Structures are given as structure tokens and as C-alpha cells.
TrEMBL record:
Molecular function, one GO term: phenylalanine-tRNA ligase activity
Protein name: Phenylalanine--tRNA ligase alpha subunit
Chain residues that bind Mg(2+): E263
Protein species of origin: Candidatus Synechococcus calcipolaris G9
Entry's family note: Belongs to the class-II aminoacyl-tRNA synthetase family. Phe-tRNA synthetase alpha subunit type 1 subfamily.
Swiss-Prot/TrEMBL cofactor(s): Mg(2+)
InterPro entries cross-referenced by the UniProt entry: aa-tRNA-synth_II, aa-tRNA-synth_II/BPL/LPL, Phe-tRNA-synth_IIc_asu, Phe-tRNA_ligase_II_N, Phe_tRNA_ligase_alpha1_bac, Phenylalanyl-tRNA_Synthase, tRNA-bd_arm
EC numbers: 6.1.1.20
Catalytic reaction list: tRNA(Phe) + L-phenylalanine + ATP = L-phenylalanyl-tRNA(Phe) + AMP + diphosphate + H(+)
Subcellular location: Cytoplasm
Length: 336
């Protein structure tokens, strides 16, 4: 038998006090972790409520039902309070997350400036387009060339004075950076039989002193046509048709010239800033060049031409200095 050291009133007072402190504490909880700790603290197996209920045995039997009911009500009240606080904290957490991740669709986007085609590339594209329209196919060759393809096969042996005009950069193995796209003529003819109509764009190199119209690295477009019965008239007609297509009625002139790989040879000038600017070299392919690739010069004739892309771009856009193409100055490039 236990002796009653407690009466119902005392226990009731303890329960009421517990309710008051617990409700106050729960209302102040700020995180879900603390909420769980507090739940265990008040309602857990060894929690505050259990501690009080553990003393129930010491109550007079008549007080127990009242206190039991009271304890249950307290438990439910605290549980409800904890639940409400949990909802409040969860809602706040979601709200904070939403605010952090808000996507403002009215915000201006990031500006990415759109690039555009460099004037040299657009000029090359226009020239290629015209020749493709005339039935030519595009070919190309390496920028690092052998002496044979760049000079020798083009009828320019080592002691030929014309080499002086095309001094270039030599590599330790004897190869060189090609001085013109004419080397593509040889490479193409070696692998193909006539009839031939090719157009070959590419970068070229020369040990030139740079000035307003010369650069050490520049671009050319080569054309080559080989067939039976081609004459200088075909060459002239092709070049004229091409220039008229590109420039409209800008004045041009043919000038007799000399290249080791053509006979006869000519250069063509175009009006640029009040003076004549040489834009291309051309001629009838020298019979020796045809022999070098195994063609019969009695059966086939042909014409070739090499265009300076920079020069064409300068005439097209009235640009005063070739060096502007390479400095990447946006104030210049943005205009195209
Ligand atoms: N390769 C010459 C140069 O770079 C240009 C040239 C002249 C090309 C006459 C040709 C040609 O195909 O027939 O100066």
C-alpha cells in the first residue's frame, strides 16, 4: 500500500503550471529541430508530463480520474500547440525558399552581343559564290608547302629571279609558308584529269614590309580552268564577268605582266581611292606547268588567276589601310 503524500490539488497545480510554461516555450520555438527537442522534453517517455504522471500512484484513488482526464487534456493541448508551431515553421521555411528562388520574368535578360562575319570572310564568301555560280568547285591546299608545289612545279626554279618578289618564311626542314594559292593548281591537277574548273581560297605569307596595301599574312583566291580549246578570250571574259558581278561598273584595266607559270600574263587593276589598285594576276597556264603534271599541252590549254582578298575587300568597302583587317578593333569591325 502506498501512502498518499500528494493530493489532487497539488498535482493539478503542477499540471497547470506545466501547461503554461510549455505553451509559452512552444510559441517561441524558431526551428523544426528545436521543436522536436521540445516535444521530447515535454511529452517524451521521460518527459515532464510523464514525470508528473509518475507520481499519480501517490494520489488518493478518488482524485486519480480527474487528474487522469486533466493530464490527457494537457497532452492534447501541447500536441496541438506543437503541431501548429510545426505548420507555422514549415510555412515560413517554404516562403523563405520561394523568395530565395523567385524568378522575375520581367527582369531584362543578359545581353550577349552577337558576333558577325569578318569583312575578309564575307568578301571571300562573295567571290566563291560567284565562281560556284559559274560552275567552279571549291578546293584547297596546305599553308605549309614544299618548295616543289609553291615554286618548282609552277615553273619557278631555285635560281629564278621571280622568287625575289615572293620571299617567304622557311621552315628548318626546307618547307615554307606558301606565298600564293597557286600551289593548289598543281596539287589539284596531279589528282584530276581535265576538264577542270576550281576555285581555291586560302591564307598566304610573304616576307613583305607592311604598309597600307601590303601584309605579311594575307588571303588569296585562286581559279584554274583547263580544257580543250580555252583561249585568252575565255580568261578575259571570265575575269570581266566576275568583276562586274562583284563591283558593278567600277572602272577596271588589264595590264600586260609576267608570271613564270602563265604565258601570256596580265594583271588587273581596279579604281580605289582615286588610283589604280592591283587586285589580281592572271594568264594562260604555261605549257611547262601542264607538262609538269603530266597533261598534254598540245591537247589542253587553260587559264588561271589569283585574287588578293584584302584588296577586293578594300575596294568593296573603300577601306584605306590593309592593317585595319587584323587589329581586331571593334570600332572598325562593327561597321560590317
Ligand atoms: N600567284 C600570283 C601571286 O601571288 C598571282 C597569280 C598570277 C595567280 C597569275 C595566277 C596567275 O593563277 O595565273 O602574285
Amino acid at each position: 500500500m502506498t501512502t498518499s503524500t500528494l493530493d489532487g490539488q497539488q498535482l493539478q497545480a503542477q499540471l497547470q503550471e506545466l501547461q503554461a510554461t510549455a505553451l509559452k516555450a512552444i510559441a517561441e520555438i524558431e526551428t523544426l529541430d528545436t521543436l522536436e527537442q521540445q516535444r521530447i522534453h515535454y511529452l517524451g517517455k521521460k518527459g515532464e508530463l510523464s514525470k508528473i504522471l509518475g507520481t499519480m500512484g501517490k494520489l488518493p484513488a478518488g482524485d486519480r480520474p480527474t487528474i487522469g482526464t486533466l493530464a490527457n487534456t494537457l497532452k492534447e493541448t501541447l500536441q496541438t500547440a506543437l503541431e501548429q508551431q510545426r505548420h507555422k515553421l514549415q510555412a515560413a521555411q517554404i516562403q523563405a525558399q520561394l523568395e530565395a528562388e523567385t524568378l522575375d520574368v520581367t527582369m531584362p535578360g543578359y545581353f550577349r552581343p552577337q558576333g558577325h562575319i569578318h569583312p575578309l570572310n564575307s568578301t571571300m564568301d562573295r567571290i566563291l559564290d560567284i565562281f560556284v555560280g559559274l560552275g567552279y568547285t571549291v578546293d584547297d591546299g596546305p599553308e605549309m608547302e614544299t618548295d616543289y608545289y609553291n615554286f618548282e612545279a609552277l615553273n619557278t626554279p631555285a635560281d629564278h629571279p621571280a622568287r625575289d618578289m615572293q620571299d617567304t618564311f622557311y621552315l628548318p626542314d626546307g618547307n615554307l609558308l606558301r606565298t600564293h594559292t597557286s600551289s593548289v593548281q598543281i596539287r589539284h591537277m596531279e589528282l584530276n584529269d581535265p576538264p577542270i574548273r576550281i576555285v581555291a581560297p586560302g591564307r598566304c605569307y610573304r616576307r613583305d614590309n607592311e604598309d597600307a596595301t601590303h601584309a605579311a599574312v594575307f588571303h588569296q583566291i585562286e581559279i584554274l580552268a583547263i580544257d580543250q580549246g580555252l583561249t585568252f578570250t575565255d580568261l578575259k571574259g571570265t575575269v570581266k564577268a566576275f568583276l562586274a558581278e562583284l563591283f558593278g561598273d567600277v572602272p577596271i584595266r588589264f595590264r600586260a605582266s609576267y608570271f613564270p607559270f602563265t604565258e601570256p600574263s596580265a594583271e588587273v587593276d581596279v579604281q580605289w581611292k582615286g588610283r589604280w589598285l592591283e587586285v589580281l594576276g592572271c594568264g594562260m597556264v604555261d605549257p611547262q606547268v601542264l607538262k609538269n603534271v603530266g597533261y598534254d599541252p598540245d591537247l589542253y590549254t587553260g587559264f588561271a588567276a589569283g585574287f588578293g582578298v584584302e584588296r577586293f575587300a578594300m575596294v568593296l568597302h573603300q577601306i584605306d589601310d590593309i592593317r585595319r583587317f587584323y587589329t581586331s578593333d571593334l570600332r572598325f569591325l562593327n561597321q560590317f
